[in-house]
Design brief:
The protein is an alpha+beta fold. It contains four helices and nine strands. It is globular.
Length: 189
């Protein structure tokens, strides 16, 4: 089973983010767009994991202190990795609340490293991937520059999830395996 750990995007932020995708789509660039229903902040990608390990992963994640990472995230501006002039990954930025999200990502990293999962080589960068560029255009770069200050809103971070990803020709399908409440959130499930 293909697994990752994530914070899901609040439903009320999906429409403005989808509208931004549409404005970028008009650039004519070849992009694999993330479906708005799949918007999330990846804390840790685990890849293919045998079913027998899921219970241990769930138990390790359950030990993360519930106050870690509880915050509000403000999403503003669009950008690209490695840069808007050489876009490969299109993202919406986090302008407030990135530090608690980073602390949660570090907690997830530590919990899963204890189970033998390799640590990430790069430091965590709070961002929301909205698309992966296959063929950029100069107009895409120009549109990204115009969207640098676009405000998408603020959302509370009250939970994180162990997610399952099933790849289909039409794109990935994500389902929640286990949800973990943070301070102010509902009971852990």
């Amino acid at each position: 089973m293909r697994l990752f750990v994530a914070v899901l995007v609040a439903d009320d932020l999906r429409p403005p983010l989808a509208a931004a995708q549409e404005r970028l789509r008009a650039s004519g660039a070849a992009v694999k767009w993330v479906a708005p229903a799949n918007f999330h902040f990846t804390l840790k990608f685990l890849g293919e994991v045998p079913d027998r390990r899921v219970q241990d992963i769930e138990a390790a994640l359950a030990k993360i202190p519930p106050g870690l990472g509880a915050s509000a995230l403000t999403l503003r501006g669009l950008g690209a990795f490695p840069s808007p002039r050489r876009p490969r990954v299109l993202w919406a930025g986090v302008t407030a609340g990135a530090e608690p999200l980073q602390a949660l990502a570090v907690g997830v990293e530590q919990a899963l490293a204890a189970l033998g999962f390799a640590r990430e080589a790069r430091p965590f960068s709070a961002h929301l991937t909205i698309g992966r560029v296959e063929r950029p255009t100069p107009d895409l770069t120009a549109r990204l520059e115009r969207e640098q200050a676009t405000a998408f809103g603020t959302m509370p971070v009250t939970a994180f999830c162990l997610m399952r990803s099933v790849l289909h020709p039409s794109g990935p399908e994500y389902t929640v395996v286990t949800q973990y409440a943070l301070a102010g959130g509902e009971e852990r499930q």
